[in-house]
Amino acid sequence: DCHSTPPTHRRAAEPPTHRRASRDSMPFVLFLALLASATAAPTTKGRRANEQPKVRLVVTGETNVARTTRGARASNRVAQMAAWGGNVTMTIRAAHNTFTVVEVADPNEARLFKEQAERSGLRVEEDQRRYPGPSVATRTQPLAEETPWGIKRVYNGAVPNASFFPSAVTHPLCIIDSGYLLTHPDLPSDATAADPLQADPAGTMYFGGDLCNHGTHVAGTIAAIGGDGEGVVGVFPGAPGLKIVKVFGQAGSPGCGWAWASQLVDAVQRCVDSGAKIVSMSLGGAPPSDFERDAFQTFFDDGILSIAAAGNGGDSSYSYPASYSSVMSVAA
What we know:
This protein is an alpha/beta fold. Helix content is 21%, strand content 17%. The strands form three sheets. Strands 7-8-6-10-12-13 form a six-stranded parallel sheet, with helices on both faces.
C-alpha cells in the first residue's frame, strides 16, 4: 500500500545542501517528496532487536593494500587484524576506497584493536546503525486511484500527463531500502536489483520481496503508476528501470531491523555501478561517521545526488547521512 497520510512536521534537521544537480536531474529531484513520511528514529523491532551484537569496527586508510579479498596481501591483512583480536567479516570497495569491517568481542577489545591498528597507520571507528523511517501508510477504505497531497504540492497542482515523463532513462533512479514488491499492481514491473547478488528469488536478501513494506511504500511515492484506476500516483508515474538495493528486512527475520553505515556505503556504490546518478534513502541514524561522511563526499564529487531522510520529528536533532553537507536532506 503506497498511500500516506500528510506528515505533521515540516522542519528539516538541516537545510538541503546539495548544489550541483544538473538540469537533466532536476525533474527527478522532485521525488524528494518520497521522504515526506520518513524519519531516522530508531526502532526496537527487527531480527537484531534482542541480540547483543559484537562491537563492529570499520578500518580505513588502506590505500593500495589489497585489490581483492583473496591473495597474499589480503590474507596478510586479515591475519594481522586477527592478531589484534579482530574478525574480518567483509571488505568493501566503494567511493574509491577500501573499507575493512571487523568485529571484536567487547568495547575493551575494540579499544585495544584500535590502538594497535592506529599505530600501524590505519584509521578505525565504530560502525553506526542506520534505521528505516517508519511508514505512516494507512488505508481506511477501498479507494479508486488518488493523488497524495505531497505529490500535488510537488507539481503545484495536477501531475503532468504521461508525455511529460521520459519513457526510458540513461541513468535510472536507485532506491536503498527494504526491497520492492515486484508483484505490487501499482508499481512498475521492470525494476531490477542494483546488486546482482540480490537478484535470486531464493536469496535471503532478494530485492523483489519486502517483508517490511517500507521500500515498497517509498517506491510508490516515487513511481506508482498513474491512470490504472487503483492505488496512488507517484512523482514520476511508472518510472522506468528502477534499481533497488535491499538493506533491511532479511528473509526469515521478524522485522526490518537496521543496516550498518558500512552496508549503506556499499549499497550506494552498487547503485552507482548500476548506472544510477540519483540515490534515494528513506533512512538514517546517529551519530555521524567519518568514513561515511568521506564516502558521501566522494560520491558527490563524482556527480551522484544522494537524498536522505532528515526526520519528521520537528526538532533540532541531526540524522545521518542526511546531515552531511554532500547529501540532500529532506524532511516533512
